[in-house]
Design brief:
Shape: globular
Number of strands: 20
Distance between the termini: 30 Å
Radius of gyration: 22 Å
Bound molecules: flavin-adenine dinucleotide
Largest sheet: 7 strands, mixed
Structural class: alpha/beta
Oligomer: single chain
Helix content: 25-40%
């Protein structure tokens, strides 16, 4: 048995960032990860063939690059190996009519592409881009503050001082709007609207869900203003750097260490028990980077002492699932709509708002969507080091899917467990890509398919393949993430904290939850 000041359950990037800050402040930290590899949803491995490095989950590291954690520790991270690959051609969509639209950091390029659809939309885009710094200040402040009435009041006060009542109400309205409401107000072109709305589908914001507008807004404006970054050599560059920071500061990291229970005494967390039976104690904090259901279930078998909290954790709502298809390729797809598309980090196959809305409702109803939304990542277009010379990897994210299959919206696949269905469903996905990029199948050298349940097997936080560890709909966000009264990473058990995507400010690789908690515990 070892004694630590803080024990972290799981080595997702939030836990690692939390551990790094605590260790830098002199805390003795121990991180316990059930897998052989650290990083949770941020891992890079040769899933197909030797030399082809695939990002298991997160590929876009812009949130980490722009994070408060990175701002504070940029030098340390760099000296521990962090390297980014900047992206100028960020995201695009292709359409059944043979057209495409994409956002690049060069404003003239983006605006010219928009003007080909609608000159009024090009003007609207320029106005939004010009207003973005004034808007971003408030939104990033809110997302970067511990969630409570103080943060909300502080944001409101600042908004009112800088933008007046009507300006402040406009920002509040943006936060409450659905993607479609915001897009319809600002743009006329269905192509432009669909291209931006696809970002809502990276989370669980289909076009008509209130609270979703801010994601397409922030992603498109941030990409236009700052571009995007990938990890050089793979997204795991950030995990290796975090790991090195923790160990260099004296922290200990254990892999193949499945935490079976958080031990408590007198209403306080005292440590952990591993599945192997080994125990470890923590004098100041146990920090669980797990899904809420696991915290109130497996990890606290006798409950937290607060039945309301336990019920809220067990009823925490997960979003629909994701399938990941990793391809090793002889060459990038030949997008029929335009050769320029080969240089984009992401190509979305999400041709209309109605298609996205339909896909989402099919998934929620337990159906395999007839035409899923596809996010086709082309990391080797930006960073050739991830594959042997001249070869490529393709990162295909299939949104949105049911965890349990009740039927098939296309009426072709009989309901069955994912293990028996995934290959067939992957063929549907490849057919869609092939339609937009003929010849893709002939370029495939190797493939690896992860169904929603495979994602959960790889990382139990991805419940049912939910890549964001919990719906971000308004009723489970802000003051209500993961539940009312517990938005500040607190639990009813003294010294026990929850971190990670299930907690404020939610999913993504911004390390915000872990870093804000670490500052709360050990100071800035
Ligand atoms: C397919 C996919 C694509 C994504 N794409 C992007 C993207 O491009 N950009 C972006 O910003 N975000 C993306 N995300 C979201 C982002 O990756 C996650 O929100 C984020 O990485 C979650 O980090 P976390 O700290 O909550 O922990 P996680 O990454 O969920 O890691 C949790 C860790 O805890 C471990 N663990 C759980 N229970 C135990 C236990 N009992 N004992 C020991 N260890 C345990 C798990 O094994 C895991 O390693 C994506 C996610 C997925 C799945």
């Amino acid at each position: 048995m070892s004694e630590f000041d803080a024990i972290l359950v799981g080595a997702g990037h939030n836990s690692l960032a939390c551990a790094a800050h605590l260790a830098a402040k002199g805390w003795k930290v121990g991180v316990f990860e059930r897998n052989a590899t650290l990083g949770g949803a941020v891992r890079t491995q040769e899933y197909t063939l030797p030399g082809f490095r695939h990002d298991f989950g997160a590929m876009n590291l812009s949130l980490f690059a722009g994070s408060a954690f990175h701002k504070m520790y940029a030098n340390e991270l760099k000296s521990h190996g962090l390297e980014f690959a900047p992206v100028a051609d960020c995201f695009a969509s292709v359409f059944p009519d043979g057209k495409w639209f994409g956002v690049s950091t060069d404003l003239e390029k983006t605006a010219t592409r928009i003007a080909a659809f609608s000159s009024a939309d090009a003007d609207a885009w320029r106005k939004l881009v010009a207003a973005f710094p004034g808007e971003a200040e408030h939104l990033f402040r809110l997302l970067g503050s511990p969630m409570g009435f103080r943060a909300l009041a502080g944001t409101g006060w600042n908004l009112w001082r800088k933008k007046g009542v009507s300006g402040a109400l406009d920002t509040a309205r943006l936060l409450l709007s659905s993607p479609r409401a915001w897009l319809d107000e600002n743009f006329a072109s269905p192509h432009v609207k669909a291209t931006l709305a696809a970002w809502g589908m990276h989370l669980d914001f289909a076009p008509d869900i209130a609270g979703g507008a801010v994601f397409p807004y922030l992603e498109s404006m941030a990409n236009q203003n700052f571009g995007m970054v990938l990890g050089k050599g793979g997204a795991d560059t950030m995990i290796r750097a975090l790991e090195n920071m923790v160990t260099a500061a004296g922290g200990k990291i254990f892999t193949n260490a499945d935490v079976a229970e958080i031990t408590t005494a007198g209403g306080k967390a005292t440590g952990i028990r591993l599945a192997s039976g080994e125990t470890h104690s923590a004098a100041k904090a146990v920090i669980a980077g797990v899904a809420p259901g696991a915290l109130a279930g497996r990890l606290l078998p006798n409950g937290s002492g607060d039945a309301g909290f336990d019920t809220a954790m067990k009823k925490f709502r997960h979003a629909p699932g994701t399938m990941m298809i990793h391809l090793a390729l002889d060459d990038l797809p030949n997008w029929q709509a335009g050769a320029e598309l080969r240089q984009f980090a992401y190509v979305h196959l999400a041709p209309s708002l109605d298609q996205m809305a339909k896909t989402y409702s099919q998934a929620i109803a337990g159906l395999l969507p007839d035409e899923p939304v596809l996010v086709v990542g082309q990391p080797t277009a930006i960073d050739a080091s991830r594959a042997p010379a001249g070869k490529h990897v393709l990162w295909v994210q299939v949104r949105a899917l049911p965890a349990e299959i009740a039927g098939d919206a296309a009426g072709e696949i009989q309901p069955a467990p994912w293990e028996t269905v995934k290959e067939r469903y992957a063929e549907r996905v490849l057919d869609i890509i092939e339609h937009y990029a003929p010849g893709l199948r002939g370029k495939i050298l190797g493939r690896a398919i992860f169904s929603p349940l495979d994602l959960e097997r790889e990382n139990p936080n991805l419940v049912g393949g939910d890549q964001i560890c919990g719906s971000h709909h308004i009723s489970q966000n802000f003051l209500f993430r993961p539940a009312r009264g517990f938005a500040k990473w607190n639990t009813p058990v003294e010294r026990l904290h929850l971190t990670g995507a299930a907690t404020w400010p939610g999913a993504g690789v911004g390390a915000a939850s872990g870093f804000m908690l670490a500052r709360q515990l050990a100071g800035r």
